[in-house]
Fold this protein.
Amino acid sequence: MSGARTPVGPTERGAAKQTVTISFAGFNRAWAAWIGDRLERRGHRVVYQRWDSPAEVALVDLLRDLMLAQGRILVIVSEWYFQLGPRTHEEWNAALREVVAPDPARFAAVSVTNSTLPAAAAVLGAVELNNMGADEAERRVLDRLDLPADPLPVPADGARQGPRFPAAMPEVWGGVPRRNTRFTGREPLLNDAYHLLQGAEPGAGVVTLHGMSGVGKTQLAAEYVYRFGSEYDVVWWVNAEKRVTYRRRLAELAPQLGLSTGAEYGERLRAVRDSLRRGDPYARWLLILDGADEPDQIWDLVPNGPGHVLITSRNPEWSEHNSRLLEVPVYGRDESVAFIRRRAPRLSEAEADQLAEALEDLPLLLDQTAGWLNDSALSVEEYIGLLEGGIDQDVVKISTDFPVAFQTAWSILLNKLRDTVPESVDLLRLCTFFAPGFIPVRLLKEMPHDELPEQIAGLLNDPLLWNKAINQLRQYSVVRLESHESAGDETSSSGESLYLHRMVHQIVHKDMPDEDRAEFIEVVRRALAAADPRRPTDTRLWPGYAEIVPHLKYADVLQSKDPAVQTLVFNCLRYMYISGEYRAGIKLGERALKAWRRLLGENHPRIWELTHHYANLLRAVGDYQRTEAIERAAVDHLREQRGEQDLDHSRAVSGLAADLRGLARYDEALALSQRLLVTYRDLLGEQDSRTLGAQNNLAVSLRLLGRYQEALDADRRTLEARRLLLRARHPWTLNSENSYATDLRLLGRYAEAASIQTKNMRENRIVMGADRPQTLDAEHNLALCHYRSGDRATAGPMLSRVLERCERVLGETDPQTLRFATTTSCFAREHGDIDQARELGESVVARYEVMLAEGHPYIAGVRANHALVLRSVGERDHAHVLIEQSLADMTAAVGEAHPWTLGCAINAAALRNLVGDPEGAAALSQIAVTQAGETLGRTHPLTLSARIALAADLRALRERRQAEKIEQEALADLAATLGDQHVHTISARSRNRPYWDFEPQST
């Protein structure tokens, strides 16, 4: 375009700074921001004037009001600018001739569109900014405003970065839906979201768009991205409906950020979260979490850092998780009318108003209905008549939170689709056997197509028909085409996934003939089974399972007799167990047992395999009594039916031994473990993975019995064999290494343990991910290695961090959380906050009392720990009573020579001294020294503590010579064993009485 231009004012070009008012449609905000930034950097004053065009105000009046602005008015010309209202080209031509033509010098314009514009827009003299780089575009803007194009000064280091040139995408861009060119209204919401995010403190830039289904939360978030995306270097869109899919999608960001990671899933996820937190390499990032309706499932994974997070959700509980809320209502009537007229130009304003009222201003329904109504000969009155006529409520029943008109409107639309492209209805119905939201239709394309129903085979085998079906659904806004490719990559319509709104999903799923339902669900089951990675222990394949798991319920896989589908269920349960998704796994296991017992019979072989996986998950959350009953029934049945040499029977025996360990029946568990190891060696040989698993479990039983050296020997053999049989970074190998380091630490070989565990923790993070249970356990073990080595400055923060993360990931009552809380309370008692130690200790005692039976050694142990807290706050008598009871209970539970009992004895002797019973204290210390020397050896740290304690008790009895002899010998052994400058050696030399902390072990 071209047009006459006359400079404003008496000065020559560039002689003075100017005021420029930029008039723009909200859709083109990115252009306004970039142009304004370029002008402001040259010292000019910029006023931003978003163009609005309410239908009830004459266009001439709006233009005259615009002319009241100061200085030159720069219009950003686009089809959006002229459509708002909506307005016709005729209206614009008349208004431009009347208002702008008499004084064209007040206006300048730039064009960012290739669409046809009103003819009279030529008076604006717009210069083109399309299809060019930033430098040339800036030159043209300055020239159009008659401003000099002098080079800008080089910005200082750390200076504010301006908006990116709108035609240039952010450095990293992924998953963002295509822009909705029919987006209408929502200006206040967009501006509120922008100001809330921009005004937030670093680390607090989180805003949640919440509202009912169908109000357009996702479309609003997408429009935010396109309007404000030029201010970010990273824009990453994540499907956050499920924790597993959220983690997978976030991990995919690692290579886009240029992070040097291996292929391991956990390493990529950790690297991404750390990169976002530090803002390196990009500080200006925007993460969109779409469909995050369960904040409790993912809030702990929302990254902190200098960037921003925008969430869409039906759940307002995000306000409890450091997020500001913005409610997204249905359209205002003026927005509804404007949207309908843009979607269906043949409708008048009055007809659009009628339709909006009938459809209750719900954006999703307006979009779908207006789209096909525009192509139909049906009048609005006739359509509303159909709506009011209703349909059979017994045929279609949908959620009560949907508008009444929705179900009827959908029946009409489905009929329209059947009449035009019937294959689109088949595809849509197939999609409803996946979970709502992102539908991985590529799984349908990738599955074997033999023996498929004819109508489905034709659809999947004919690319033209497939594309035609998808395009028809897209045309009526039934689905949205999605791909995880970078922007600018126009993928074909066979793309990676479709987005199907849950409202649409539910209505289509229920409105389906039974014959189609049976055929379609079987197709999806087979597609999921074909996608099974088949190795749930391989963390590199976890993204595949994370994608599959959400769809199991909707494909009703538990009703399938197909062995491949049943194997998929087993593999998903195994994945959920190893990855720490215990609660979700338990729910799936419960449903599977109920369904398969009815489908296959009580004693089908699959039932016993399912029982094994289900019991593993229950045991992981501490339900030992229940799992003991389940596994014992399995052992008895399989022994009777198949004999003791059967592998399924042996697997059930292994589970029963684990249950017995959880119930503190350690001798029984050891006997089973020993017998089982012999069985596996006879049946499978020394190097089979199941034999090594039995050897690993034998070591666990030995460790719980306090036989640390024997446990170390067994764990060493297992570790060496697993390194050869598996790989060094296999999860089971890493678990063996962690166990080996634990044995070293319990034997007092702290430096060796810390060296091994530092490497182990790092590799667990790489392989498993930072917040997986095995990684958390490895980090906790390393913190204790540092603590026992005397590095309290490192140990304290590590213990606090790992406890906090474990509470978030597994919950406050999980057995692993309780173990971590126990050691953190002990640390806080000695080196932190005694009030925190007391609060945490009381909580741990109460939770163990609920989880475990009275008399369990863990209850006795944490009560013994709590007695030391009571001693520290001056409640000596209460502490004395509690420690004596704990000593008696621990003796009854594990025997008088167990290290836990000896530790309780050391503490009880100290409390006896404090309450005036030095004779009882010395007698108990002497017993502890003797038994510890026999059980653990003369120089074990627990034995050395008992010897130092005995010396203190003898001094209290005035037996100074004997006390001096014992003390000097103990100090010499401490210096030789731990080092002359170790904190325990220095403390003993200063005659600080030692105490013992109970540490619950993994079972």
Summary: The two ends are 78 Å apart (CA to CA). Residues 1-15, 390-404, 484-495 have pLDDT under 50 and may be disordered. Residues 699 and 711 are 4 Å apart (CA to CA). DSSP finds 44 helices and 14 strands in the chain.
